[in-house]
Amino acid sequence: MTLGLRPGVFYRDARLYCLNLLLTYPEACYANCSYCGLRRAREDHGGRPPSFIRVEWPVFSLEEIIGRTRGRLNLIERICVSMTMHPRAYDDTIFLVRHLRKKLGLPVSVLANPSTMEEGSIEDLSRAGADMVSVAIDAATAGLFDRHRGGGVGGPHKWDLYWRTLDEAALILGRNRAGCHLIAGLGETEREMVGAIARVRRLGGRSHLFSFYPEEGSLLAEARPCSASHFRRIQLARFLIDYDMVDAGVMEFDEYGRITGYGLEGDVLDELVRSGTPFMTSGCPGKNRQCACNRPFGDGPPGDIRSFPFAPQEADIRQIRKELATYQETVMEEAFKS
Ligand code: SF4
Question: Hey, where are the domains in the chain?
Fold first, then answer.
């Protein structure tokens, strides 16, 4: 829609500031992550393109994408190349980063797939022109990672390799240049998610949050979306940790591992909530904004926005306050039983 390749306007006039490009091969992704509509064993759904983060990913030629982007450099502030699990993925990513940098001059992020990368790959991506590299660890604990991405689904991904790659990215690219995708609602407690966010921050990276939403054709297609209250508390904690306002160690939790204290009291915390900023999409920055990769409605429908692609308004803040204060569910229902 932003490039005029598809008709339509975003709800509440949201704007997209980052082009999210996904590598595409005739064979589906070789991996089999439970929540993903792109996985190799996905059910065919009437020939429509597979969906991922609630949208379809139609295929267009690289040159057409570049041609149309050139005319929209006042709007688009970043490009992201997302790798899938495929033998060609790494070499094609290096080519694309170099080509896009040369043709458009925009900052380029890579959403890396460590399972297809070798020692030194991050250096190569940086030399090719990537200024940000993110790793989609997605699950907050080693057990959930294996259940949703590794042995639990016959998948190739390894928890330790993913963290090693993120560590390498932070070391090579520098502070705030490495990102970690984390999905809330895969069965973790808020304490476990805060633990993962704090680990990313100790490496010098920042976390990009997603609220779990069931994808058609995925193993979790029938699962419940992440609850708003669980996601809101995690969003607020992430903001405080990622912007070094609070050390995760002082946060408080109840017997179910839900956040009951953020280590920040009174007006400062209230002011932050009122600003709405902690509840906006977390992603790679642009030249004029803290987050260019705002993925409008990528993790929740317009009627139930999770990551706000624009500044929340007063009515949104009222709803957010209610959600922050809601502790109805005991423990997160395991979305996917092994
Ligand atoms: S936050 Fe967005 S731009 Fe950054 S790596 Fe993730 S998908 Fe790409």
Answer: 11-337
pTM (two decimals) = 0.94
Residue matched to tokens 């990622």: 242
Atom of ligand 1 nearest to the CA of 136: 6
Q: Other C-beta atoms within 10 Å of 156: how many? A: 16
Encoding tokens for residue 218? 């995925």
Condensed to tens digits (0 to 9), the pLDDT of residues 133-157 reads 999 999 999 999 999 999 999 999 9
Q: Which residues of the chain have pLDDT under 70?
A: 40-51, 328-338
Dist. CA 310–CA 281, nearest whole Å: 8
In CATH, which of 3.40.1670.10, 3.40.50.1360, 3.30.420.340, 3.20.20.70 is domain 11-337?
3.20.20.70
Nearest 10 degrees: Cα torsion 194, 195, 201, 205? -90
In 3D space, the residue among 21, 47, 14, 50 whose CA is nearest the CA of residue 217 turns out to be: 50
Which residue is listed with tokens 């998948």? 155
pLDDT of residue 56: 84
> Could you identify the atom of ligand 1 that is nearest to the CA of residue 134?
5
Q: What is the model's pLDDT at position 265? A: 78
Mutate to test the pocket of ligand 1, among 208, 209, 282 (most ligand atoms within 8 A of CB): 208
Residues β-bridged to residue 275:
none
